[in-house]
Specification:
The chain starts with 10 loop residues before the first helix and ends with a helix. The protein is an alpha/beta fold. Helix content is 44%, strand content 18%. It contains 26 helices and 29 strands. The strands form ten sheets. The chain has a four-stranded antiparallel beta sheet with strand order 6-5-14-16. A four-stranded mixed beta sheet has the order 10-11-9-12, with helices on one face. A four-stranded mixed beta sheet has the order 27-26-29-28. The protein binds one RNA strand through strand 8, strand 12, helix 10, strand 25 and helix 17.
Amino acid sequence: METKYNPKQVEDRIYKGWEEGGYFRAAPNPDKKPFTIVIPPPNVTGQLHMGHALDETLQDILIRYHRMKGEEALWLPGTDHAGIATQIKVEEVLRTEDGKSRHDLGREKFLERVWEWKEKYGDRIINQLKKLGSSCDWDRERFTMDERYSKAVREVFVSLYEKGLIYRGNRIINWCPSCATALSDTEVDYSEQEGHFWHIKYPAKDSDEYVIVATTRPETMLGDTAVAVHPDDERYSHLVGKTLILPLVNREIPVIADEYVEKDFGTGAVKITPAHDPNDFEVGLRHNLEQVKVMNDDATINSFGGKYEGMDRYAARKQIIADLSELGLLVKIEEHTHNVGQCYRCGTTVEPITSKQWFVKMKPLAGPALEVVKNGRVKFVPERFSKIYTNWMENVHDWCVSRQLWWGHRIPAFYCEKCGYTAVSREDITACPKCGGAVRREEDVLDTWFSSALWPFATLGWPDKNEDYDYFYPTSVLVTGYDIIFFWVARMVFSGVEHTGKEPFHTVFIHGIVRDGQGRKMSKSLGNGIDPLEIIELYGADALRFTLATGNSPGNDMRFYTERVEASRNFANKIWNASRFVLLNLDDKVSGKLPEVLELEDKWILTKLNLLIREVTENLEKYELGIAVQKLYDFIWDEFCDWYIELSKPRLGKEGSPQNILVYVLSDILKLLHPFMPFITEEIYSYLPNNSRSIMIEKWPEFKKELDFPAEAGQTELIKSAIKAVRNLRAEMNVPPSKKARLVVVTDDTDTFTKGAPFFKKLAWASDVTVTVDRGEIPENALSLVVEGAEIFMPHGDLVDIEKEIARLRGEEARLIDEIKRVDTKLSNEGFVKKAPPAVVEQEREKGEKYREMLEKVRAGLKNLI
RNA sequence: GGAGGUAUAGCUCAGCUGGUUAGAGCGUUUGCUUGACGUGCAAAAGGUCGCAGGUUCGAAUCCUGCUACCUUCACCA
């Protein structure tokens, strides 16, 4: 073994070994409990980013832990076809490479290109997941456009249609002019923008009167079909029912009264454009207003816009303002900040417009989906996210699921050209079932999220009855970020409940997002993204995983910076070297089994290990992975390396060598650490004697009662703190390590300190240690040290500064006096003594006693010097 | 406007169901070739736990209010 751990020489080889060993595979096994996670499928053409790295790391930790616990652990991987994202990407390539648009190619040819693209790049993200060490069952890799998966999508669509939960209607939707498709409400991001509030005069017909309306989108006035005022607004009541002349267009529009209008906002009069605003749309329905759509799909003005036809929406806006101004109808312009919706894929400002689309009726689906969370069949970790979920689900609107794209699941609706009947069918049809006429298939495809909502069961073979589905579904845990709760989690829940009658998972483990060192979101436009693959290249996958797991508390964002990865890398190196030490000190008698006779320090480390096993396990069960990994770090570095290895040194190579204990403890440590750092633990484990198995299929360590030695552990702690005190004394007195010194330990507990004597030599630079009860043996001219249970004297030559020693002891004295005061205040508080648990009171008393004793000794020491 | 989060050492963050002398990593200072590790060892400095109340024998921890920052949903045209 080299002195430095080199992940590059290890990781790929080990991963290959796991794959060849078939350790990732899961299969229904009635003797075992299933544990299932379905991966949140990354975009098939995507690239691994830090968000994935975190998500996959957390999943792999859980999967590896449960696998070692003896459960049948299935981590089902796959990718998402990601409709808009992928289509945009391929269109871009088409444009730059061939200078063509998708329309130049036509639907079929274009889809061929997308599939080619998918074949070419689909593996990329999968291989990147492997780099992380992900223990997915690759034999079960799924893709949302697989034939089998598509069958599930179609089944769901048809069945919802048959139940009346899917309908086609002309309603207001969010339209992205750039992607040229409808979007659902969740696919629109709102951001505050500086805009204007234009006040425009609408003259009344046959009168000098007029109404001033205020708008942020003047171009939509071309489609106005009314002006609305509040019914109680006296300023306008005489105008209600009158007719206005819509400027520029010269259309006659009525003044209507509707409660939707707020009297105190703007001018109290609202122009109503039913075809271009969701609220106006509703008003229009209530008042039977005409819908005049004035825009084309690319957000240019259409023929209803008169002279503005062909202009882009913003050009039209400018021109309209200019024209109104010229006509003297522009009353005033106010600065106004308002929320503007943008397409979550391309950032283009979306345009609300009426359009004929397919919708999922949400109310009937939301009820049961709320119920499974309310009754705890689906639990969120942390709990608070169930509120966010519930709130969304309670206010959910119908879901627009049709997209004007080519890449995706084509909607299985067929329109009869003859009788107009719409057939929605599981099988493709060529003739109208009603009249036999020719049918034309719907051009639109489904929202990507419509298909990914089926992921937990469609990947397991649903709707076909089969063993996998029966065994692994419902899945156990879903691991994902909070940013995707509405998009995906909520939709999986109602889909699962509706189609399988079961919740798709029992637990939703939510994590935050990974931010850059300054706390900013990582983004392409900022260029502040950190490439996980680069980190792996530089520091190793284990270091990356460890960094992501450390300090990760559920639901909270984390900052990523390379200093932390370096710390993780150093930790890996530490383990590597501790293992080297253990391995270099083995002889041929090593068995890895614990010996009959255990020394004090052996019992101490075994007790600590027991505790560690319990804590790591408990925290993993609670999804507190950050705490679990922190405990491991502390134990390995502080307890095992800095203390136990040091304590073991004097006995090595002799009779009673602790080699088997070292191997035993190391072996358990590696197992506990394996879910977090799979590569290095596997590599080291392979060097340990007497095991030929992969660590990933070893049994998870368990708390062993017979290895719990609280008394001995306490004794060792006493020795440890005495050693620390001596080191501290020496450092303060500037005694260099090269200068060994004799120690006299005066104590009633000679047993403990006699056992500790060799360690003082080794770890506190003692030349010789005398342990005695006899105060007569206290040497002249000695520095004195008071620790719990003992006084330690260190004879000094002339080198030590007496003044300094007096000052040090005075400091000690003051500290102890403070402590005693604190304890006394507590104990003299009647309420405390009466009401606090007796154990706590007793503890406080003991503390007081201990401090008093120590104080006495410190004072005696002082007296000696003065 | 609704809902939620965060505020602890110079920086980044732990601190679970109230009782430790409030912790870690990084950074800083000092010393060290101590039988694996300088990606290391030893020692240390550094905190009125955002502010103000309250509950309690006891609050960084629970409750209320305030302030600051951040999410998110809904939007007033």
